[in-house]
Specification:
Layout (H helix, E strand, L loop, with lengths): L7 H6 L4 E7 L11 E11 L2 E10 L9 E3 L32 H20 L5 H5 L1 H7 L32
Antiparallel strand pairs: 1-2, 2-3, 3-4
Length: 172
């Protein structure tokens, strides 16, 4: 964690569009993670859309980027780059270079990129990126494993599937 001069709450509060930053003491909604230094609830607007986010500052920040979650993900339709638990995939970390001497700019960039990602995929009517990343989204769902048979041809159009539970097959 950077020196005492870095205060994540102040950095986030200074970002345009951020209306509220609240430290969550003893936050354990998604379980205690010893790698996380602190989690902050951030209310921010981007392009007239308001978002409730959870920004978790890792102990290794800024070497490791903060996980950012959409706090109320269940209130939205599935969208690309946001898994069922609300984790926003705002940056591909492969080959990423961050200026660890400037944690304020790193944190600001992360939040702005997360907001841009949400805006882009919330407004993606075709849900193209969700379709492309559907395997990752599916794997994030909290379900017991089961075999699924699909009788739908793959096209570029989004289709809604209905899951029927308690279907049993009997051998004759």
């Amino acid at each position: 964690m950077p020196g005492n001069k870095f205060v994540a709450e102040e950095v986030l509060a200074d970002i345009p569009g951020v209306s509220s930053v609240t430290p969550l003491t003893e936050f354990n909604e998604r379980g205690i993670d010893p790698k996380i230094f602190k989690t902050l609830r951030v209310i921010a607007s981007h392009e007239k859309q308001k978002w409730r986010l959870l920004v978790s500052i890792p102990r290794s920040f800024p070497v490791s980027l903060p996980p950012i979650h959409l706090e109320n993900a269940q209130d939205y339709q599935p969208m690309g780059h946001v898994n069922w638990q609300g984790n926003i995939c705002y940056k591909d970390n492969q080959g990423l270079v961050a200026d660890i001497r400037n944690p304020e700019a790193v944190l600001t960039g992360c939040l702005l990129e997360a907001l841009r990602t949400l805006h882009q995929h919330y407004n993606d009517v075709s849900r193209h990126d969700l379709w492309v990343d559907y395997e990752d989204y599916w794997e994030s769902l909290p379900a017991e494993p089961h075999v699924t048979m699909c009788l739908i041809e793959q096209t570029d159009d989004l289709k809604e599937l209905t899951h029927i539970e308690r279907v049993q097959f009997y051998e004759i």
